Amino acid sequence: MTLAELRRTSAANLCVECGKCSTLCPLAAVADYSASRVAAIRDPEAELLRQAGAVQRCLTCALCEIRCPQGVRFSDFVRGLRPDIPAELRHPCPHGEALQAAARLMARGDEIDRDLSWLDDGLRVADEGELALFVGCLPLFDVIFEEELGLRSLDIARAAIRLLNRLDIEPVLVHDERCCGHDLLWSGDREGFEALAAANAQAFQTKGVQRILTTCAECCRTWRLDYPGVTDGYRPQVQHLAEFVAEKLDAGELEATGESDGTVTYHDPCRLGRQLEIFEAPRRLLRETADERFVEMEHSGADALCCGSPGFVRCDAASRALQVERLGGAAAAGADRMLTACPKCLIHFTCTQSEDRRLGRQMPPVEVEDLTVFAADRLTPRIQGEAQ
Amino acid sequence: MTVAWENASLLARSLQSGPLTLHAVPPAPCTQACPAGINVKAYVSLIAEGRFSEALEVVRERCPLPGICGRICHHPCETACLRGDLDEPIAIRALKRFIADVELDIADPPAAILPERPESVAVVGAGPAGITAAYDLARAGYPVTVFESEPEPGGMLRYGIADYRLPTDVLDHEIEVIRRAGVQFRTDCRIGREMTLTELLEGGYSAVLLTVGAQFGRGLRLTDEECPEIQDALSFLRRVNRGEREPLGGRVVVIGGGSTAVEAARTALRLFARSVEIVYRRHWKEMPASAEEVEMARQEGVNVRYLRSPVRAEIENGRLRGLTCLDVALGEPDASGRRRPIPIPGTESLIEADLVLLAVGQEADLSFLPDDTRERLERRDRLSAEPATLMTKLHGVFAAGDVVTGPATVIDAIAAGHRAAQSIVRFLTTGDSDPDQQARAPEPPTEYGLPDTPAEHAERMAPPIERPVAGREFTETELAFSPELALTEAQRCLRCGPCSECRICASSCGRRHIWLRLPGEGTDEPVLQLIRAPSSTALALESEVAAGHLLDGEGFRSIELIPARVRMVEELCRGCARCVEVCGFDAILFVHPGDPESKVQVDPALCRGCNLCLAACPTDAVLPDLPTTSPAELLPRGDREAATPKEGPTVLVACRQRAAELGPRLEQLGGEAVPLWLRCAGEVDAGTLLDLYERGAQRIVLAGCATDHCRYGRGTRLAAVQAARAQTILRLLGADHERIVTDWPPTEEQPVTLAAGTGGAA
Hints:
The complex is a heterodimer. By secondary structure, chain A is of the alpha/beta class. Chain A has 18 helices and nine strands. In chain A, the strands form three sheets. A four-stranded parallel β-sheet of chain A has the order 6-5-7-8. A three-stranded parallel β-sheet of chain A has the order 1-2-3, with helices on both faces. In chain A, strands 4-9 form a two-stranded antiparallel ribbon. In chain A, helix 9 (138-149) packs parallel to helix 17 and helix 10 (154-166) runs parallel beside helix 18. Chain B is of the alpha/beta class. Chain B is built from 28 helices and 30 strands. The A-B interface holds A 51, 86-89, 92-93, 96-102, 104-115, 139-140, 143-144, 147, 191-192, 195 and B 569, 571-572, 632, 640-645, 685-691, 693-694, 721-722, 725-726, 728-735.
């Protein structure tokens, strides 16, 4: 894509230089970062953006886009510029780049045969069928973060399957499922992303899957917004599990059980919130389970602050500052627990909490938990009335 | 000799295969050209840095007479200087004089050396060859006595060259430095008169070196009559330099074309000769005197007549009237390579003269030798010595310099002195004098080209010249560079070759990037070698040497290590200038000086690879220019579309520290194995291992040090964690996790265990 095309498709050519975006940028608030978005139109080669490090440092959280009078999608614009960033300028992930390398490996076209030994006894899955669960990178996360943070991301997948089993649904787990490609796409490797998208589409289509549930905001966004155009001919319905659950609640097939413990708040992942505009479904779920003990933070919904490190693209002191600020926002709202619908947000917040605890810093007294796990513990089919 | 290591794995291999076989990068042209082996590039580089006394130390390593060479050397270095192809050669001689004069001004000669060897050495003749040899021997720890027939040491330097070219105080200073190095001088002591050679040999000297020179002016038969107005130029110079400066007044004709002729002519001019002419039978191109000297003489008023051959002196009433000369044509080249002069009959002409000075050749005066000895040692008026060892037919008696070669230049005499000293040291330490073992074919000079990035034109600085003025005729003509001029001139140097060899790095690097072993121990010749290697390799080498595994015995050559230079990643540079501040070599400059947002760049010609900037840079913009360390460079990605990835090589991911011992591992892993060196295996992350897998590596062998030997403490454990992660991820995806194997050396502590299956070492 040429720069001119990129400007057109991301609407950057419509910018009127009002500057609202720059005042909203969360990164600018905590770091020496002044992505002059204005420069995007005025500078023919986007050189200023590149030189200022704006291309690689942008969070792509899209907060700047909510007030843009012209509808410029700055995050898309930046993503389009990223393939040109030299490799040495891409800030390596502090967790050893293993996830990126694994994604590249999956993009290579080798036979993939996922190890499903993590499935606990009693969890029922299918090999073929209409509804599938896209597990994503959760097993890989555990290789790293279970040891480093004590975080078991696979519990999210286990919770999702348990909840579906309770509804008598045996979700399909596709053996040769690959990474959705979100991180490659957002770090500038479009070629790798397309290879993953094509392989996934083929794998899921082969199993007769019509409907895909994800527990990850980024997988959800990628399947819904980025696969079309690459995977022509296969258009499954893709939903975040929260949406699926909200539907079941509306249909009266699920109900909350037990007492809710403590006050909760919800962190909108930018991929699910601003980018897919899924604001209501997770809240529907929380109102059902937490009832009146669900509170909103000052910045919520479309105005939500970013977790600081979308797509593992970068992590630095600014990311830490954003995470601490977000946790502080949850505490200020009076929440004991902050839920999120994205395993990566969960990792980043947990990471900051554990690191800052290690350093002896006082962290806001807020637990972070995944929405799917929270829901699975508290929802039960209405008909059976079976308690946990 | 400089040796550049481009590839650490090559190093690893050669370390295993006995003595190093090194790819030698030859010295710069100037250094190659110096007969005395002075590292010219090094001292010019040091002058360019303003490090004058260190520059003088470099000169002194190979030349005890810097002030003298700086004045009268015929500078083959300048002739070889590559800058001459660009504009004009560096004024190397004048630079050397400058640093010698700086020392003269501050009067801080090197400290005295105490003799520590039992064998003492006698040197006969305190000319440049003799005192150079004496200086070398004294520095090697031998008590040395130099016998000199004249009242002061210096030989031709003192009595053949006048003060206007070489002031006595300069010579005195340099003799003083040599004295302080432990050399004893016995002047007014002529061997053959006050003492005999036999007495010397029986008097407790373990070796004798004859460097008596060739100070006997050869005659030219111009008349049968007795004629006091025809004199030998050397005797004339000797008289003048002893202080007999009587005015001449008349017309002086000097016959000859060598340095002595020009010297005599210029001296005569200073003694108020009415006119001075040099008569030379060949063309100016064939003149042995340097063009510079001749030009100076002409500028001072000496008239040079070429292609004239004097046939007889015209004497009237017992007084010299002049010389009858024949014109000369040049024929075929003779033994000296110069065209033979052929007088043309019938072209007689008269050159009027009141005094004729003959400078047509010099001979050695061998009358000091006992007759029977002289018969054994003499060959055609010279001493005969074995070319390789410089030993004469008398056991323990060596000869060097003009007395062996015939008249030559100062720098040749210094070179001969070095060789003699070396040979004597070998003789005294090993008793070895078998020339076969010592004959060493001189390495052919190597061609260098101009650097890839040609320097801009820069005018050669010339030292100021003062014309002789009345009353100060013998004051020095050529003056010294000012420090500013010296810096400007030295900075013109192109520094041919990979390193300036100034060795500042060795003394200034406190972080053990550098390892240096000085020549002299076990070496036949003090050859300096440089290996370019990263610090950890340097350390590995050092321990190898300490353990005696390397560089002993015949293959020994001294080695110096210089670390990799740095490069700047422009996009990461924030122009904070911390690197500029720490750089001791002014190698880092702003791209746009004056612009507050300017980034910096590294001048590779100035960077010495100390890597201080690397430590100072807050944004990691400075990288060492090392061999490949990234999977991307090692295994470039093929076509992603390809159904099955190409089977790649085995990759050995290992600590550089272990480079030496991993050489054979690389061999075992097969010819295809490629190494990916890291500072420490602990640097590796799962991503790199997966990346290598993804790029087609057939097998990835992770080889760190033993856990209890990690320089970084936890390197092996960190690497084990990352290896386990990479293996687990591969297993989860159904890929071949056994391709990643670890290969740790046995450890005294508990062994490192991996969570996932560890492949055995192949």
